[in-house]
Design brief:
This protein is an alpha/beta fold. The protein has 2 domains: 212 residues, NAD(P)-binding Rossmann-like Domain (Rossmann fold); 88 residues, Alpha-Beta Complex (UDP-galactose 4-epimerase, domain 1). It is 41% helix and 16% strand. It is built from 12 helices and 12 strands. Strands 3-2-1-4-5-6-10 form a 7-stranded parallel beta sheet, with helices on both faces. Strands 7-9-11 form a 3-stranded mixed beta sheet. Strand 5, helix 5 and strand 6 form a beta-alpha-beta unit. Helix 1 crosses helix 7, helix 2 packs parallel to helix 4 and helix 6 runs parallel beside helix 8. The longest helix is centred in the first third of the chain and has 22 residues. It is globular, with a radius of gyration of 20 Å. It starts with 5 loop residues before the first strand and ends in a 9-residue tail after the last helix. The structure holds nicotinamide-adenine-dinucleotide and thymidine-5'-diphosphate. Thymidine-5'-diphosphate binds next to helix 6 and strand 8.
Length: 353
């Protein structure tokens, strides 16, 4: 492609987005990487302080709910590719405020699709890459895996909003021939993860000696992937994936919550030099999340066979790196857990049940 690549990465100040921005800025000095982010509670430019002065990096504070801001950024940079990560991303918050998820995840995505459609009269060399979740497939029993042909069956307001956005992306591909691509990934973990999700919340609570609120019987299963492996997969799909395809991305790494929490407690005791069993005493069973999906597990054969991607770190390696990062970045933790965060943790999910 002769035209310079100007890639709009939405949600680049968030957890996964910041790893994607960093990877692209460092690996592709000839691309212009435009990070478009509203800096909600989940967005934090500290996540990108190491690359903020790079010549090929641009930050634009903006909201995907505002079509004019999108129009401005598309025109200003001649955007010819989009990697869309901006979203409301937490299931518990979606139960408290479903409409916020409809606005950002559904309407925001359609605004972005409209901006691309408007600007890409000639679609040659263009790509609209939408990042989604395995939660759109609903819940598995004890056996089986989600594949790319599993029917959508979302159960939470979060997954319903992501499912809807996936459908709109697909529909713009069919109806307007917009060159779209979608990936559905399992649960990520790693540095810069906002401490509302299981792993960073529990690391933070262990550091602070607070209870570890395990929902229900703790026998819910998730398939965990290190965030840097997800960023590598996004790089690969962006460059080698086929238009109009979807790819599942997963860690081949299923854990029941309670087993994961016990492993985390053990590793934290070692890192903090505490006697074995200390952190486990913080485990507190609390009221279950309504509509809680029992099990997620991804069959990532397609991306492995067609694009050659597979996870590069083991769970033990990834968790150790993650814990070290949180122990070394207590200032970051302090910043993101001040103010509104404290109010959120007064809500129903964090009391003993
Ligand atoms: P996150 O909550 O950490 O970050 C979301 C980012 O989007 C933040 O920087 C926020 O400021 C920005 N944002 C939110 N609303 C916006 C708006 N209206 N306009 C512009 N920016 C806005 O989320 P994450 O965990 O990094 O997830 C990123 C994407 O990956 C999401 O689409 C999510 O559904 C998907 N995903 C996440 C996981 C996971 O385990 N975290 C797994 C699979 C897929
Ligand atoms: P979470 O990190 O919120 O991701 P998701 O709901 O998108 O999978 O939760 C992961 C699992 O951990 C899920 O089964 C809910 C459970 N969980 C708890 O038991 N306690 C908590 O405080 C949180 C945040 C999650």
């Amino acid at each position: 492609m002769s035209e310079q690549r100007s890639i709009l990465i939405t949600g680049g100040a968030g957890f996964i987005g910041s790893h994607v921005v960093r990877l692209f800025v460092n690996k592709y000095p000839n691309y212009r990487i435009i990070n478009f982010d509203a800096l909600t509670y989940a967005g934090n430019l500290e996540n990108l302080s190491d690359i903020e002065d790079a010549e090929n990096y641009y930050f634009e504070k903006g909201n995907i709910l505002d079509p004019e801001e999108l129009e401005t950024v598309f025109s200003k940079y001649g955007i010819n590719a989009v990697i869309h990560l901006a979203a409301e991303s937490h299931v518990d918050r979606s139960i408290l405020s479903p409409l916020d998820f409809v606005y950002t995840n559904v309407i925001g995505t359609v605004n972005l699709l409209n901006a691309a459609k408007q600007h890409w009269q000639d679609v040659a060399g263009k790509r609209f890459y939408h990042i989604s979740t395995d939660e759109v497939y609903g819940s598995l029993g004890e056996e089986g895996y989600f594949t790319e042909s599993t029917a959508y069956d979302p159960n939470s307001p979060y997954s319903a909003s992501k499912a809807s956005s996936d459908h709109f992306v697909r529909a713009y591909g069919e109806t307007y021939h917009l060159p779209v691509i979608v990936t559905n990934c399992s649960n990520n973990y790693g540095p810069n993860h906002f401490p509302e999700k299981l792993i960073p919340l529990f690391i933070n609570n262990i550091i602070e000696g607070k209870p570890l609120p395990v929902y229900g019987d703790g026998r819910y299963t998730r398939d965990w992937l290190y965030v840097k492996d997800h960023a590598r997969a996004i790089d690969m799909v962006f460059h080698k994936g086929k238009d109009f395809e979807t790819y599942n991305i997963g860690g081949f790494n299923e854990w029941q919550n309670i087993e994961l929490v016990k492993l985390l407690c053990k590793l934290m005791d070692q890192k903090l030099g505490k006697p074995p069993g200390t952190s486990e005493q913080l485990i507190t069973y609390v009221k279950d999340r309504p509509g809680h999906d029992r099990r997620y597990a991804i069959d990532a054969t397609k991306i492995k066979d067609e694009l050659g991607w597979q996870p590069s770190v083991t769970f033990e390696e990834g968790l150790a790196e993650t814990i070290d990062w949180y122990l070394e970045n207590t200032e970051w933790l302090k910043h993101v857990t001040s103010g509104a965060y404290q109010q959120y943790y007064q809500t129903q999910y964090h009391k003993e049940g």
